[in-house]
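On clarity, I found the account of how folds are encoded harder to follow than it need be. For illustration, here is how one protein appears when written out as sequence plus structure tokens:

:::
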Amino acid sequence: MKSYTAKEIRNIGLFGHGGEGKTTLTEAMLYNAGLLDRMGRVEDGTTTTDYDPEEVKRTVSISMAVAPYEWKNTKINIIDTPGGFDFYGEVVEAMALADSSLIVVGAVSGPVVGTEKAMAMCKKTDKPRMIVINQMDRENANFDKAMDALIEKFGPSVVPIQLPIMEGGAFKGYVDLTTMTANMFDGKGVKEVAIPSALKARAEELREALTEAAAESDEELMVKYFDEGALSQDEIIAGLCAGVREGIVTPVCCCAAQPNVGVTTLMDNLIHYMPTADTAKPRASVNAKTGEPCDLIQGKFAAQIMKTVADPFVGKISLMRVYSGTLSTSVAPYNSNAEKSEKPGTVYMMRGKNLITVDKVEAGDIGAMAKLQFTNTGDTLCDSSAPVVFAELEFPKPCIFQAVTAKKQGEEDKIISGLNRLKEEDPTITLEKNAETGDVLLCGLGKAHIEVTCAKLKNKFKVEAQLNDPKVPYRETIRSMAEAEGKHKKQSGGAGQFGVVQMRFEPLAEGDFEFVNAIVGGVVPKEFIPAVEKGLKEAMQRGVLAGYPMKGVKATLYDGKYHPVDSKEVAFKSAARLSYKAACAKASPVLTEPIYRYDVLVPDEYMGDIMGDMNRRRGRVIGTNPTSEGTEVIAEAPLSEMFNYATDLRSMTQARGSFKMEFVRYEDVPANIAQKIIEQAKKDEEDDE
């Protein structure tokens, strides 16, 4: 593939709900461009952009992938994306990589939740967009019904530029509403024919809506439209192009990707209506030294890493959009985020999993480098003489977590190492260790997301992980004051151990633990005081009810005894433990649980379901906030009841709901639930013995 300039490049992301044919459409485009001998099938695992073993196994996209092709002296970088919400981080990367969006809608299903999310993200990121109603070959395909639903959801700015011609339920051609010509598919291309009489009235109606949308994109066109009641063909097209660039018009066309019908026309429309890389809206950047917004210096290299691929053979592959200058093998890129220079390396173009070596990647294009040492997703690479930093990528926060262990003993380090490598590839997963439960927690966007991550771990790094529900980090505390003596006396041979402490334990208003030395008169020598405190801290790792850590306790040492010969640090440590166990058992011990705040954003129609569900989870709704996207329900709930909330919320809201969570405090576990936890803890302890 030859080198292209920015004005000859289109960077187009494919977005939409799962199962609407984005990957199949990509495959058809590559075939039409002469890059494939035959089209692959998602069902067979033979497509260019679904190449990961898990994608082949599940027959769904789980990663975004770039598929460049040449069409009519233009380079088009198609970016295929997953439709599943567990892999929404990939959509974020693709949206940042693309200059414009093609939203794929099923001709049978019409616009669904994935369509809504894609449109919302396009508006949020100010991306020009088109819609293609795909799968026109399917039984019960209905363009008019899908079109009406699109207008109802997104308004009259969504306008068709094509009207399908159907014969006997089959997709045979289309009316081009910009030129008011009809075209029939003949197996080799299209043949111009007269507009079928049954479609003339409908075509005229849609042409009028198209003209009005075009006029609204330009003041001069609007004046002419009002004065004359019509626009020329060239004016309509120019108005549509301007409207698409400004995000105020969304043209709609149609095709059937599986049988490859109407796809070449779509490819033409992408060139015609989508902005070139040099006219696309620039990505926000700041001066790396001052932090002030700045424009890029023409000719100076500047790029942003939009995706990282952890390849076990090649190493880390960094996929980037070049915004200025040229990336070449002679360039030593400067990472302005890490403030370190990378070594020059081989420059690639990616098509699916295939790395194609190229001499350079020009501004406006998408390329890759391998083995960048300091660089991660979202980082800026640039010329060290003109350091800039591009806007960060805003990834969704992990909302579900599982405890991860190695299936084979002794492979724990391999698990951690492999997952850390995969974190470079997927910024929406996190890995953390709970100090209280000992669990290593793998956190992600959904159950499937976590399962796929573990599958990648096995496929890429040959180590198998096991997932379990995490342990709840319960704690114990006391609600009243109690005192107790701890006496340790031991005689063995000539050496003895002796230590006695009198201690008071009471609830602590703030903090986990406070130790007070109230000894007077040296009844416990000062050299043994640290041993008492240390013994307490060790003992408090296990509470007196179920063995969970004891927190929120103030311990006061006010009396004791010692022996001038037999007293030792170990004796006072033991005495402190005995005093702790005896006193805390009488100090109204209780089991406590972590309470989290949940900010749940849902469409208004699901409010009742969300609030009822929170009540069933022992949650408390503490407020609601109306937003432009629906209603935000603010609630507090115990963590133990919320482990599967991400999955359940999607089910309750048809995947339209989302939430954020934040730790708030610990609260007492209700007595009936606490009793079950205590009984289970005792049973587990007996089983271990």
